[in-house]
Each structure stands twice: as C-alpha cells, then as structure tokens.
Amino acid sequence: MKASILAILKKHLIAFLLSIALIAALLVVALFASKTKTGTFYAKYDHLRLLWDETVFDLYKDEKAGKDAEVYDWVRFVWEDGKCYRISDEGEAVEVSEGEYSRQVVFLDVSGMKRTDAGKGEFDGVPVDYETFEDEGWKQTYYFGAKGGLEGYEVIDKDEPEEIYKTVRVVLYDNDVPKDVFDVPQDYRFFDYGEDGFWDEPYDGDGESSDTKMGAFYDAYDHLKVDLDGSVIEIYKGGKVAELFDGLRGVWEWNGSTCYMIDGEARTVELSDEYLPEIAYMDLEGMALTDTGKGKFGGKQLDYETYEDEGWKQTYYFDADGGLKGYVIVDLEEPDEIFKTVQVLAYDDKVPAGVFDVPEDYEFIGDGAVG
C-alpha cells in the first residue's frame, strides 16, 4: 500500500515538474522575442499602417483587452474572443465569423517563432538591418532602419519556398488608436459568415472611393484647366477623355488607350499609343492612399493626400473647400527628383459639344493609321 502511494506521488511530481519546465520554456521564448528588434517593435506600437499589394491596412491592437482591429478599403475588422466581426459602418451591418478571415497582425507577432538569422541586408534598395524568424510553416524576415523602425517584411510559405508569399511596406507606426476602433455597434444588422445581405462595397463607378478628397473632387468635375511647366492644358472627361494644348486636341477612348491627336489647322489626325493623357495622373484606380496631412504648395499651407503604386508617388493639395489646387508626381525609380508639378487653374462641369469627336474627313497619319 505504502509503495503504491509513493508511486502515485512520484507520478504527480513528475507531471508537475514537466509542467513547470514547459512554462519556463514558454517564458524563455517570450522573453527572447521581446529582446529582438521585431519583438521590441511589436510590443512598443499599437498602430501600424501597412502597404501590401496596393492596399493600405491600418492595424490596431489592445493586448490587455485581447482585441485586434484592421481597417482597409471600406471595411473594419475586429477580432475578439475567438470571433471576427466584419463591419460596414456605412452600411450599418456586421458579419460574424470564426476563422474565415486572416489577420495581418499575426505576421508581426513572433512570440511563438524561432529567430534563425540576423544581419544586414537591403529592402526597397536601402541598406537595413534584418531578422529572420521561422516555425514549421513560415519564414518571416523583418527589415529595420537605422533608428530601429520597421521598414517592412517578407513572408515565405515553406510549402513554396522559392516564392515570396507577401512583401509588406510599413508606412507609419505610432500609438494613436481611435477610441471606437474596437467597438462592434449592437444596433447594426448582424449576419452570419456567407449569409446574403451583408452590405456591398460603396462604389461610385469612377474607380475611386469618393470618401477621399481626391475621389470626391475627381467625381465632381468633368473639366479642369491646369498649368504644366508654363503650358496650359484643358482637360475634359466623359465617356472619353479629351485634352486641348498648343493648338492640338487629343482624344482617348480612356486613359492609356490609342490617342487621336487632332490638328485642326493641318486637318490631320495622328494615331499613336505614345501620348498619355494628363488626367491619367488624377484617376487613382489601383493606387493606395498612403499619407494625409498639411503641406506647402504654391506658397500656401494646404491639406494633402498622397497615393502610391509600384511605380509612382502622387501628392494632391486641396484648399479648405476641397478644391484641388495642384499636384506633385514622383517617379519611384528616381525618388529624389520631382517628375512634374502641376497647378490647377480652374475646374467646372462645362464640356463643349464635339470635344470628343474625331473628324472622319481629316487625313489620318501615324503608325496606327489605316489608309
């Protein structure tokens, strides 16, 4: 009997010691993660703005409350108690799910991963420090600037190790968390995941959400007069695009398509794919809003919005009434130089009759002409 009791006590003691060892190991992993650049950065900031695949994500976390939130496009996600709430504030609707949506923030929390490499490398063409973490399924490399700020990261799925699963740029980080970003409005309509009725994306038909200053301006006006390096361009949009400059009139079916360059005096129409309409720098479909604030343009302090894609960075300046005063374009292949600065002289909805017409009795010239 006594031997049996000793055996039981010994068994429980071993189990207890193993539990203590496991807890200690987890604490060591957590402590190690917090002492790495990535762990320190993750613990320090509760708000990050990320640019991934031309989409801007605002990430928020409240570790004490165990909540995460992400805001992008027209929707807000909140994760709490194992559930995800996909919220349309404009549609006053909430979709409730469990596990159907992945969170960007999981690629920043490395507490359960092992650091396998660290050193100096390059990100976006700039020398940086890096740390690489791995677990059974993923390899994640984080790039840091000279002051320890996270510049971006790359994620590789080990099932496809030759391909980069995602590359993410960090646009902004701070601790500014809106007080209601984690709220799930109880007076909204609630839907289960996949259930019909969740409010669709508000879309104005012009390729740009009108809840931005540039989107609202672009939607509101069909005629602009701009000054580019001393040359005045009259821009018109409708079913087509037309631009008047230097005695010529260019007509495009839409941005980037074949241009009909019409010379009224010479009575010729040149067909070409070489001319890009100026309005292409105002139609922001496929670009991501990466920054807003106040800046100087034309000697005045104005509101601005900055948009980017893989090739271009475009900043638009607005007066107090939301009117576009001008914009600055930077080619990201030459980021230290300004590609063009454009001043907006006037805007309205007046589109002359016939401005989109291509005269059929003119002589057609150029590579695209058929004679």
Could you characterize the architecture of this molecule?
This protein is mostly beta strands and 371 residues long. Helices cover 13% and strands 44% of the residues. The chain has helices spanning 2-35, 37-44, 213-220; strands spanning 47-52, 55-62, 67-72, 75-80, 83-88, 93-97, 114-123, 126-134, 138-144, 150-157, 166-174, 189-192, 223-228, 231-237, 241-245, 248-252, 259-263, 268-272, 288-297, 300-308, 312-318, 324-331, 340-348, 363-365. The strands form two sheets. It has a twelve-stranded mixed sheet with strand order 7-8-9-10-11-1-2-3-4-5-6-12, covered by helices on one side. Strands 19-20-21-22-23-13-14-15-16-17-18-24 form a twelve-stranded mixed sheet, with helices on one face. It is elongated, with a radius of gyration of 28 Å. It starts with a helix and ends in a 6-residue tail after the last strand.
Explain the layout of strands and helices:
Blueprint: H1 2-35, H2 37-44, E1 47-52, E2 55-62, E3 67-72, E4 75-80, E5 83-88, E6 93-97, E7 114-123, E8 126-134, E9 138-144, E10 150-157, E11 166-174, E12 189-192, H3 213-220, E13 223-228, E14 231-237, E15 241-245, E16 248-252, E17 259-263, E18 268-272, E19 288-297, E20 300-308, E21 312-318, E22 324-331, E23 340-348, E24 363-365
Parallel strand pairs: 6-12, 18-24
Antiparallel strand pairs: 1-2, 1-11, 2-3, 3-4, 4-5, 5-6, 7-8, 8-9, 9-10, 10-11, 13-14, 13-23, 14-15, 15-16, 16-17, 17-18, 19-20, 20-21, 21-22, 22-23
